[in-house]
């Protein structure tokens, strides 16, 4: 087993963690210096002297890039039965890291998550951030997990090719990985670990606004695409209703036009998979419009209920309907279509 530790501008806690891991077991330890600079060279020199391998980025490239560098190195060696990733700031206890190593050996082809339980004194930004990403992940995938932001994760060696291909170079990489895993068939296993925050998590390099935007970027892209499609659908619905006075024709006509727009944008910009776009189109196009048909039927049924049966105004009924179907559409598109 290889223990992979990405590190940017570490302090003595990295050295302490290394020594404790060396005392507890004989796993190989790989540390990635993610462009920390000359001021931190002495710390990484001491890490090497302790028997670890250190790979260095010339400039800071982000946590996702550091993890990929480590995964690629382990993949090329082809000597490890798996990788456990841990943070360098002392928030992951050596005992928990070793327990995750055992879980990786027991659960091949699974992503093993060291899940914090968030009991006791937890910094407010960490509690809010984890609650928000946990809710969004559950809505997007239909699968609840306890800790979406944990940096303590384990993978079997046959997952390394895929791990090197997951998009993202910074903190968004770990969320992208969780979103991609169900699609490629990697289940998640959670192992409870202790929740440790030192000095209110001041050592974290996570930037609340910039990095949160990166983490939520997949949802923001989908929201923007859906938002423009909804505006188009809304305008066409009102126009067709005014022209025909027929709700069914108005709903179907508006949805066909907005669906064509939404599919084109999502395929090209939102759920980008890289190579093999021709094959993706042949598979995704009929699936998308099958989903669109289901959404149309649900859309019409809900509009009929709210507008014609309950007497709610068409505008209010439309807003409630679209909000209700938004996350259903995201989950279905990520899971089954793209």
TrEMBL record:
Q: What is its main location?
A: membrane
This entry's Gene Ontology molecular function terms read: transferase activity
- Can you give the residue ranges of the GtrA/DPMS transmembrane domain? 221-337
Q: Which residues form the Glycosyltransferase 2-like domain?
A: 2-129
The answer on whether this UniProt entry bears the keyword Transmembrane helix reads yes
Any one Gene Ontology biological process term?
A: polysaccharide biosynthetic process
What topology does the record note for this protein and the membrane?
A: Multi-pass membrane protein
Supply the alphabetized keyword list.
Membrane, Transferase, Transmembrane, Transmembrane helix
- The record lists the membrane-crossing segments as 246-265, 285-306, 312-332
Any keyword Plastid? no
Q: Name one Pfam family in it.
A: Glycos_transf_2
Q: Which InterPro entries match?
A: Glyco_trans_2-like (IPR001173), Glycosyltransferase_2 (IPR050256), GtrA_DPMS_TM (IPR007267), Nucleotide-diphossugar_trans (IPR029044)
Q: Where does the record place it?
A: Membrane
Entry GO CC: membrane
- Listed name of the protein: Glycosyl transferase family 2
Source taxonomy: Bacteria, Bacillati, Bacillota, Bacilli, Bacillales
């Amino acid at each position: 087993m290889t223990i992979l530790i990405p590190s940017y501008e570490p302090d003595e806690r990295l050295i302490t963690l290394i020594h404790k891991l060396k005392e507890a077991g004989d796993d190989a330890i790989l540390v990635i210096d993610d462009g920390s600079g000359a001021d931190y060279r002495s710390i990484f020199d001491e890490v090497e002297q302790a028997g670890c391998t250190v790979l260095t980025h010339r400039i800071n490239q982000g946590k996702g890039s550091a993890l990929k560098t480590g995964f690629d190195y382990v993949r090329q060696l082809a000597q490890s039965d798996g990788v456990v990733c841990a943070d360098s700031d002392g928030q992951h206890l050596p005992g928990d890291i070793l327990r995750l190593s055992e879980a990786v050996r027991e659960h091949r082809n699974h992503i093993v998550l060291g899940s914090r339980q968030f009991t006791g004194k937890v910094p407010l930004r960490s509690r809010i951030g984890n609650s928000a990403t946990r809710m969004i992940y559950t809505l997007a995938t239909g699968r609840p997990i306890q800790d979406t932001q944990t940096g303590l994760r384990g993978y079997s060696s046959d997952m390394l090719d895929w791990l090197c291909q997951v998009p993202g170079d910074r903190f968004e990489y770990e969320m992208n990985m969780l979103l991609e895993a169900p699609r490629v068939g990697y289940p998640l296993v959670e192992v409870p670990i202790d929740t440790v925050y030192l000095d209110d998590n001041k050592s974290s390099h996570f930037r609340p606004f910039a990095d949160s935007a990166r983490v939520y970027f997949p949802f923001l892209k989908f929201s923007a695409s859906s938002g423009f499609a909804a505006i188009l659908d809304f305008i066409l619905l009102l126009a067709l209703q005014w022209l025909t006075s027929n709700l069914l024709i108005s709903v179907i006509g508006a949805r066909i036009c907005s669906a064509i727009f939404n599919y084109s944008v999502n395929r090209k910009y939102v759920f980008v998979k890289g190579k093999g776009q021709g094959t993706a189109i042949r598979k995704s196009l009929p699936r998308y419009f099958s989903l669109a048909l289901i959404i149309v039927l649900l859309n019409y049924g809900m509009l009929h209920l709210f507008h014609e049966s309950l007497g709610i105004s068409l505008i209010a009924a439309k807003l409630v309907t679209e909000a209700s179907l938004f996350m259903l559409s995201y989950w279905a598109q990520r899971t089954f279509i793209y």
